[in-house]
Amino acid sequence: MTGPGARTLWYAQNLTTNGLQGWIQDNIVPLILLGIAIILLWIGGKGDNAGVARRSVGLLVGLVALGIAVSGNGPEVGSFLASLITG
Predict the structure, then answer these.
(1) What is residue 38's three-state secondary structure?
(2) Model-level pTM greater than 0.85?
(3) Sign of the CA dihedral 50, 55, 68, 30?
(4) Phi/psi of residue 16, nearest 5 degrees
(5) How far is CA 34 from CA 1, 30, 39, 41, 46, in A?
(6) 14, 20, 28, 83: which one has the fewest Cβ atoms less than 10 Å from its Cβ?
(7) Side-chain half-sphere of 82: how many Cα atoms within 13 Å?
(8) Has residue 38 got a pLDDT over 80?
(9) How far is residue 87's CA from residue 82's CA, in Å, rounded to a whole number?
(10) How far apart (Å, rounded) are the C-alpha atoms in residues 79 and 87?
């Protein structure tokens, strides 16, 4: 179907990506975090504690970025960080 009627049909269905986003948050993210935890435990078991510490700090920074992206509070966080610098 082409023309104005097709456009109305797409708007009428109210298409969103909320289902896919929810599925990724509920399934993929925990699997990735579990994989990272297993890798960190494996590296720590070999005695490279400094390497585990470096990777853990990187992981925390990544989790903070993921949390900001998922929550949708990016503009508020940016405004807060800017207010820390500008006063």
Answers:
(1) helix
(2) no
(3) negative
(4) -135, 170
(5) 46, 6, 9, 11, 19
(6) 14
(7) 6
(8) yes
(9) 8
(10) 11
Mean pLDDT within 6-19: 62
For residues 70-86, average pLDDT: 86
In the block, residue with structure tokens 């269905």: 13
The 10 Å Cβ neighbour count of residue 52 is 19
Longest dimension (CA), the chain: 65
Side-chain-facing half-sphere of 61: CA atoms under 13 Å: 6
* Tokens encoding 26: 């509920």
Is 74 a residue whose pLDDT tops 80? yes
Quote the DSSP letter at residue 65. H
